[in-house]
Amino acid sequence: MDESVAGQQRSEFGITRISKKFGSYTALQDVSFSVIPGEILGLIGPNGAGKSTLLECVAGLLTAATGTVWWQGRILPLKKRKQVIWYQPDATLPFARQRVVTTLTFFRKIHCASKADLNRLVRLLGLSPVLKKPLETLSKGFRRRVQLALALLSRQPLLMLDEPFDGFDIRQTLSMMDLLRSYRDKRSMILSIHQLTEAEKICNRFLLLDQGRVLGLGTLDELRTQAGLTADANLEEVFLAIT
Fold this sequence. Notes:
single chain; alpha/beta; Rossmann fold; six-stranded mixed beta sheet; four-stranded antiparallel beta sheet; globular; disordered N terminus
């Protein structure tokens, strides 16, 4: 089989026609999309739309019934996906009984990040007060900050983060968005976001998913055109019109 993927000159990562069933239930149906280098792609949809299932299939944690994952124009086999993708599930709590500083230092070393990299993230994420505490004792917001630190210490060129802003207030969310934007020159991102107002603030393009099907893919302006809405329509109005 020729492993080249034609027609993807602007993209470096994507999936083609991924489908997934659980028994008779179709969780994903022919989902295809690509990621442009340096962009933040928002994966948007209600609870049960298939967002987490899609990310798990792409990461290789679930076996898709059909579909292809590709990277830089070539098929990305399952055994190599960890080299390209860092997937941060919503509820994962690695080494929960270890102190935060122990976990962060371990991840820094295995990803060959510098002490300066870690110190910067500790400062920007405000983790100094909890470094000596076990991860399992932290509040939801601090747990989420540690998860972001682990993701940003990684060296994979594609980050897939499931609900990265859950547990933050408005000011904290805006601060975390600024932090993620500062890493766009180093990697692309797929963010699964439930709150549409948050997605509109940070994402360059949006993949609208509902009942396992792609209903729209593009910039907000492109989706407004698809929905037949005016230039002042927000993402929530666009999503409601398309779905």
